[in-house]
Amino acid sequence: MGSRYGTVKDFNLEDYKRKRLLLEELVYCNRKAKRIISKAQHVYHRATSGEDPHMSAVCCDFKRLERYVGERESGD
Q1: What global pTM score does this model have?
Q2: What average pLDDT does the segment 62-69 reach?
């Protein structure tokens, strides 16, 4: 069950009820992907631009997280 983001979890390892729930959630997220991405980009911009101090205060430090991921990916 791959996507352009890769396989994160093998639903076949779950019991039937859990697998159905996960599949329903996946279908919902795929159906709403553009809206989810748009909202995430909006939050990211508001939190990192400095134009919304409240958003900056309640969100994670995206820039620090990006640096950390960059370091991990480069093997440093």
Answers
A1: 0.69
A2: 95
